[in-house]
Design goal:
The chain has about 90 residues and is α+β, with helices and mostly antiparallel strands. The protein has helices at about 15-20, 25-30, 55-65, 65-75, and strands at about 5-10, 30-40, 45-55, 75-85.
C-alpha cells in the first residue's frame, strides 16, 4: 500500500483538527483509507500524519491539489509542510 506522510507545524491544534476532520470525505473520495495522527511529545502543535491510499498517483494528485492547499491554509498550517510518498511498508520486530 502507498502512504502519504505529512509533517507540519500548526498555530492551534484544535483549529487544525476541526479542519482536518471536516475534510475527511474529500480525502476518502480521493482514495484515502485513513491513517494515523501523531503529535510531538515536546510541541503539541507539531504534527505528523500518515495516511494510507489506494493508489500512489492518486495520493500525489491529492497532495498537489488546490483544495488540499486551501484546507491546509484554513487549518492554520505554519510554513511549508514536509510531504513524502511512501510504499512497501513492513512490520519490524521489537
Amino acid at each position: 500500500m502507498p502512504y502519504l506522510l505529512l509533517r507540519h507545524q500548526v498555530t492551534d491544534y484544535e483549529q487544525w483538527k476541526s479542519a482536518f476532520d471536516a475534510h475527511s470525505l474529500t480525502r476518502q473520495a480521493n482514495g484515502s483509507r485513513g491513517g494515523q495522527l501523531f503529535r510531538s511529545a515536546s510541541d503539541p502543535n507539531e504534527l505528523v500524519v500518515l495516511l494510507e491510499w489506494d493508489v500512489l498517483e492518486t495520493a500525489r494528485q491529492y497532495a498537489q491539489s488546490e483544495d488540499f492547499h486551501e484546507m491546509m491554509q484554513r487549518a492554520g498550517v505554519v510554513g511549508r509542510p514536509t510531504i513524502s510518498f511512501l510504499k512497501d511498508g513492513e512490520q519490524v520486530s521489537r
